[in-house]
Amino acid sequence: MDQIPRHQCLIYEGPPSRHLAALAAVIREKLNGNFRCLYLDSHAMVAGMRSYLAAVGVDVAEESGNGRLVLSSDRDYLVNDCHFDLERMMQSLRSALRQALADGCEGLWATGDMTWELGPDKDFSKLLEYEWRLEEFLRENPQMGGVCRYHIETIPRSVLRQGVISHPAIFVNQTLSMINPNYRYSESSVGAQSWALELDSFINRILEPQILT
Fold it and tell me: Distance between CA 21 and CA 23 in Å, rounded?
């Protein structure tokens, strides 16, 4: 059976807290494998994740204290606390992986909500380039993996399509991820409007995971 790629996309609707239980279960599994886990989101979501992690048996205080668990609302990669800086973000991830390995971890697993990560000005113009750069980085560094979260109620449909084509795998829940048949690792895929209806149909299927099982 083919291994599911490490660069995964979660497309979801409804309250962001809806998927905290699934992500907490994955984080617990990664911690058990001696990975450093990085969860990036707002203060409210970080607080929620703490509760869900405790509910699945993670000692949040201990794991945070030993550095294997990082729950953060810091966005040092933003310029003037507003503008997404692609190079800063990539440098931040490179540094985080390097430090995790230096500290004796097997690798780094990270997840972040894309609307929140991109900052208050919600400039999505660099998102596709960022996702391709991230995929290239993961290909070069097998010790890293993660889930990029796309909320359909806060991200334009055209950007959701970009999210689909730029991820080799789709995260459904803690027990189900799938190879993405629409993945394109090429700049020629920027003009994906010719198959927008196909992508929209696929997105709708993702939002009904029972169809996929």
Answer: 6
Q: What is the pLDDT of residues 59-90, one digit of tens each?
A: 999 999 999 999 999 888 877 778 888 899 99
Q: What's the number of domains the chain is made of?
A: 1
Report DSSP letters for 113-152, one per residue.
EHHHHTTTTT--TTHHHHHHHHHHHHHH-TTEEEEEEEET
What is the value of pTM for the model shown? 0.90
Whether residue 73 lies inside any domain: the answer is yes
Q: Which domain CATH number covers 137?
A: 3.40.50
Compute the distance between CA of residue 63 and CA of residue 32 in angstroms, rounded to an integer. Answer: 11
**CB neighbours of 47 closer than 8 A, spacing ≥ 6?**
none
Residue 2 inside a domain? The answer is no
Cα–Cα distance measured from residue 212 to residue 37, given in angstroms and rounded to the nearest whole number: 28
Give 164's contacts (C-beta < 8 A, 6+ positions apart).
Answer: 9, 11, 170, 180, 182, 183, 199, 202, 203
Determine the structural domain holding residue 73 and report its residue range: 7-212
